[in-house]
Fold each of these.
Amino acid sequence: MANIRDLAKEAGVSVATVSRVLNGYPYVSEEKRKAVWEAVEKLNYTKNIQAVHLAKGKTRIVGVMLPYIHHPYFSAVIEGISKEALRCGYQLLLFQTNYEVKRELEALERLRMKQMDGLIVCSHEADWEVFAVYREDGPIVLCERAVGHDFFTVYIDHYQAFAQALRYLLDKGHRRIGYCIGRTTGPNSQARAAAYRDVLGSVGVIPQPQWIFDGCLFLEDGKRVIERWMDMKERPSALLVTSDQVAAGIVLHAQRVGVHIPEELAVIGFDNDPLAEMLGMTTVALPHFALGEKAFRLLHHWLETGNVPRTQEELPARLIVRMTG
Amino acid sequence: MANIRDLAKEAGVSVATVSRVLNGYPYVSEEKRKAVWEAVEKLNYTKNIQAVHLAKGKTRIVGVMLPYIHHPYFSAVIEGISKEALRCGYQLLLFQTNYEVKRELEALERLRMKQMDGLIVCSHEADWEVFAVYREDGPIVLCERAVGHDFFTVYIDHYQAFAQALRYLLDKGHRRIGYCIGRTTGPNSQARAAAYRDVLGSVGVIPQPQWIFDGCLFLEDGKRVIERWMDMKERPSALLVTSDQVAAGIVLHAQRVGVHIPEELAVIGFDNDPLAEMLGMTTVALPHFALGEKAFRLLHHWLETGNVPRTQEELPARLIVRMTG
DNA sequence: TTGTAGGCGTTATCAA
DNA sequence: TTGATAACGCCTACAA
């Protein structure tokens, strides 16, 4: 495969001139410019991007760290990132971690190795301290709140989102309120747990541990929740469900087994997935797509200007009352 | 940032020795090995992966071309690809195209530029001739059938899948059978259209153009379908819906507006999404995840052995009868 | 077991 | 306007 030196020889110019032509720099005579393009044509030349990356020390590639892709939340976030990246001429390198710390470290190491210009962390498992170590190796933007660390982040205010829904339920008279969550670790989950404690505590309700349903990620988990709920002696009268997928699973399975929603069990989902509208589900709308977009923009600005963005932007959530809660 | 030469100086050895140590080659004395690692530690060295890529002419990166990510079909395929890639130590570079030919060409150009070792095409818009031009620039594996081109592919046999469902409906006595599809171009869509013509033709049914509902990609499109269906004078009695998401939208909206399923309208979805099971939907299970896995494996084998895989593997689909059709 | 030196393909500086 | 040449950082014959 022809390289820039072959071109130079063919066109009868220097490699420097070839490079200038290829990159559209001024100060090249029309004549030589033409000769170079002809050589490009003749030798069927294409630039080797690796060499460019090495020489420039930049790649216009951004890494995206996330546990898995086949999930409505993460695929919405990526879509937002991807849309902006496309617009700005950046490429996306995927780092699927399955929430394994080892994988997260691999991604961070790749940042050190300068495989990409920056990294967007959608969700993580390792301690923030681990991430802090890599801060000097390249720009990192988070999609989660990092309390006590001055990372640059765009995040959804899950405390406020949860609190909002809880107060709504309290106002409707509910006292036995439980919730379903994907996993208990992670900043988002902890923000919710804090809101749960605080808001229920403010009205003197003592939540029961068994009112918290862990491992709720996918539609089919909703079935499990209903089954467990039916087996309980003191059932919650309302559930906050941190994913509309799971909430939909709950609502649909409840319907099937004859549990009346919201009379016997009020259900409030999160996300405002199309499914929520379709099922008439009360839900808290979360701006996932915008989260991805903004995270990329933040990183992009950082990369292009070199100015560290001292940003920690909070994206608001909005309760949408429909029929299930 | 320290480089391999700094290490050599620090450790009092040559760069070749450093490289050997770093890459775990034999024939290095324990003493020097130790000295190198100490230098690594001391200088806080990390290898620059770009330089490695350039020197080796390989990247262990695979490109994935797909129209969008936030879609159950594509995110399942990627998940399959990603899982295998992770296992084999490969990374994924995303090329979101929005079905724009221009974007597809950009991805192919990147293959030429040797940004990645190979490319998996999940779905495309450009003519196969365009892809054929780039075949010599790197291994390309397709997730769609390419009739008349000897690309290497793994694909779901959509003709068989569609035909299977159609015959089932015919057996049940349906004659006015329509279908909903994402877009009409693309090999998968054309395979379905062919099955539709052939199977209906075989029993002398002349399908009406308005029985084909285009642009059905997401849950919310199902609502539109029902609305249009209700406005029709000669309504289909059954619909094949090429996405369970859309089928779910149809079933749920039908329920809402009082259309009885399957009595007034039989619905058969595709994918076997968890939603289908939850809603008791009859559906044709499609192995999306396996498709991604196998596509990666095919490419991987090609990359590692250098042997062109003359594979064109057809993945079967399976009708799952539940309650909607 | 070790080192030297050339190569990978571009970009960028500096002098002309 | 142009060209030589030194980076960029690593790998790898080949020679010792």
Amino acid sequence: MKILNLEKTLQSHFGLSSFRPLQREIIEAVMHEKDVLAMLPTGAGKSLCYQLPTYLKQGSTLIVSPLVSLMEDQVQQLRMIGEKHVIAFNSFLSYRDKRIATHQLSNYKFIFASPEMLQNSFFINALQQLNITLFVVDEAHCISQWGHDFRPDYLRLGEVRQQLGEPTCLALTASATPRVLDDIKERLCLHNPSSFYTNIDRPNIAMLVEKVDSLDDKITKALSYCRVLEGPGIIYFSSRSWCERFTALLEKDKSVAFYHAGMEHSERKLVQQQFINNQLDVICATSAFGMGVNKNNVRYVIHFHYPYQLESYLQEIGRAGRDGEPSVAITLITKGDEQLASSLIHQDLPNENQLLAVLSEINGNASSQLTKERERIYQIQFQLSETGWRFIRYHLREQHVVDENDIIQLFELDELYQYLVNQIIARQKDKQYKLQAMHEWLFNSSECRRAQLVAYFQGELQSKPKYCCDTCQPIPLDEFSSPSNQKPEWGNWLDELKALLLHGHVEA
DNA sequence: CGAATCACGCTTAAGCGTGATTCGGTGCCTTAAT
């Protein structure tokens, strides 16, 4: 079809002369109103895949984005190329701004929103007045990774799409297993989608898993790597307090900061910016850090704690070496790590007692309205986590126990209880299965780690790079060391750490 | 779920046992009006 047309638009709107791999194919499928599921590595130009069709199509494009910061970035990027008809509809807008925006929504070609905002009926009503011709889900693996408990509104996107008249859907992600891809297809109600996958292997990242004898050894190792390896680098932890402690230990030798979700937004933004601008050598972070961070020259990623799934591992190490230069990913493991990883699986969803109690209470209030205030009371009364309550609420609506006007319908207690218990068990089994795969990968040191990782995403390793992984050959870490590195001065970190632990949190 | 730590009571008053408490990732969105 319109080959000239695509090239012309690419040149006129984006100032580019040629497409990167798969971009053309994806755009052509979208232009043919095919649903598309695309797995492209970060930096492969995913945004263009919806931006260009938006210029060629009638109507507007709705982009579902997981983070407000990501929306803001995209909006800014579009404004840079001169696009004015773009809006991020999120909580950064005041009530007044939102009202104005809903009235003028037809002015916008690009509308960014979170899954949560798409549950707002006023917003949906306003969207229904428009001609939405493309429905984009950015970072679509979030549907599977977050939708089942943490952010259940992700599971409602298929319904939202229906409400908008089933526009063409483009789901984009950088890392998804076949199971996750199936989940995305099902949840978004993709009809016979065109699928585009590229290999997830990153040949310039050497992979290394190192067993150490104790936690003390782990700290020593991690500190020494941070001092010796050429930066900048990222260290991932599974707890906020560890991020802060380790930052304090490194502070003397390195320019370092921590990053986790317990910080103020402004501070997070500042730290991220400093890291991107090469003002920091090392960043100590939880899994909160990374999505939407465009930095090419990260040289190493250390996992002080490993994540509970290989999808997260792949995303996290993938933040190294985007410039294609040699980089290294090191995972440090010791006794007791399994416990921390599995604890993260079990803590969020309600236990059986809580579940039974809250369901009885709700049933007792049948035919009254489930107000926000009452939700808050339930959450406190039955000591449910925010995620725990949202999980219950999602299923109450799914099972029509709460109708569209939030009125509670009388229900069969045992039946609903059993249903929810089964849901929770299924969810935990799924997470357990993923953790098990993670453990197999960590502890099976007889097969090539790279091949195992690629196989988990159902790919096949074409060729092994020079520095592959620790099961293939020893990785010479000297090659990844900073040339200017002097012999590091060993402080007495153990005493420092003890002092920190005694005095609780580290002053920022 | 499970370990580490804390609080407390028992007691040949310094240290032990026991039970309670704490700690372990991720982010939208926050009222009524449109």
